Amino acid sequence: MSPPHPGHFSALGLLSAEQKFGLSRTYYTILGPESAEEINGIFQDMEDAVLSSVPADLRVSVTRSFDGRLATQLFDTAFVPAPGGSIDEIAVVQMVSNFHDKFQAQNGTRFEDFPVEGVTYRVQAVVESDEKVQFPEIGTREPQSLLQPDRMTKLRYLYEEDVEVPVYQRSALCNGDVLNGPAIIMEELSTTHLCPGQQLIVGRYGELIITNIEDGAM
Hints:
Layout (H helix, E strand, L loop, with lengths): L8 H8 L3 E11 L5 H17 L7 E11 L6 E6 L6 H19 L8 E12 L23 E5 L7 E7 L8 E3 L2 E4 L4 E4 L3 E5 L5 E5 L6
Parallel strand pairs: 6-8
Antiparallel strand pairs: 1-4, 2-3, 2-4, 5-6, 7-10, 8-9, 10-11
């Protein structure tokens, strides 16, 4: 898929992304009743430090997570959810259960007989904001209006021989328009090449949704 204004997409992503403040700390320990107090101290210290760095006038939501692994394992399962508030024995049991759930989701199996080792602990404060980049919906094509190419151009070196293909201006596309490759879609900061055997459908926000409809070859 090609989003609207792909040449600007990294900048638009920064404007759309939530502002976050976070800390992480590595501490190797088997998750069990005896480690609850230490884990609670780690999370609480990081949470206090993160919240102290957030301007007082901002609304934030705080999330916790940890990286863990089965004891003796060499790789970690990252970003396992951790409960908020005070970490007691019940919260540690929840952390272990969350680890097994995520491990199973990623690997298709679970090993509850193995102890779980906590590796890295994270706290993140996400700034709540209602002001994000919004993409306007584009209109649909009038029934009597046909999509016409802006011009024809010749593609060289992409196929076994030169191929003449239509060139469309992206600004002329409407919601629901369908193009079959090969074709070229031009805009100010980028060019989209639609290959033979591919189909393009224009979405409601002007996104170009490209799918393979056949194994076409030129």
